[in-house]
Specification:
This is Rieske domain-containing protein. Pfam families: Rieske. GO terms for molecular function: 2 iron, 2 sulfur cluster binding; metal ion binding. The chain is built from two helices and ten strands. By secondary structure, it is of the alpha+beta class. The termini are far apart.
């Protein structure tokens, strides 16, 4: 809510340190987190420890907290909405979209040669439905920003897993 990661002693623990919530800037925040955690472990005063403290109170932003939680709830509506297309044949070459197939949603991409890549549209991190980003040709999760390339491979976390699962399917072009 305050756009800062949680770096330091895990609330409620005596010797577990965390570095999380980097929101896509992991290289920078992990470096700062390593410095903060190292200093906390060795009893060295660190000027950033209070700013990034996982126990910090964020009561200054209650409206931001409510807005963030409302955004997450709205993102889950994607489970019940229709897909962008109803038939793979509607998908142009070099484009992607989300397609409903019965009770499931698939992330679908048609390569320039006509090969169709189809996989689960459910983000492995917190189970949000990804959305196609035509500018980047990626599938992006609206919940916490995980991004996947057009072939379902993870390119940005927080997830560490690809979209491919039991629904993965590659359909060669019709000759």
């Amino acid at each position: 809510m305050d756009c800062l990661p949680f770096l330091g002693l895990n609330p409620g623990d005596k010797n577990i340190y965390i570095i999380t919530g980097d929101s896509g800037t992991g290289m920078t925040n992990q470096t700062i987190g390593a410095l903060v955690c190292r200093d906390l472990i060795y009893g060295i005063d660190n000027p950033w420890k209070d700013i990034y403290d996982p126990s910090r109170q964020m009561v200054k932003a209650p409206l931001e907290f409510l807005r963030h939680n409302a955004e997450i709830q709205v993102a889950f509506k994607d489970y019940v909405t229709a897909g962008e297309i109803s038939d793979i044949e509607e998908l142009a070459r070099g484009e992607g979209c989300i397609m409903r197939s019965g009770m499931t949603k698939h992330a679908v991409y048609r390569d320039n040669d006509g090969t169709v890549y189809k996989f689960s549209a459910i983000c492995p991190h917190l189970k949000g439905i990804v959305r196609y980003n035509p500018l980047e040709k990626t599938f992006d999760c609206p919940l916490h920003g995980s991004r996947f390339d057009r072939y379902g491979k993870c390119i940005n976390g927080p997830t560490k897993h690809h979209l491919t699962d039991s629904h993965c399917e590659v359909i060669p072009p019709v000759k």
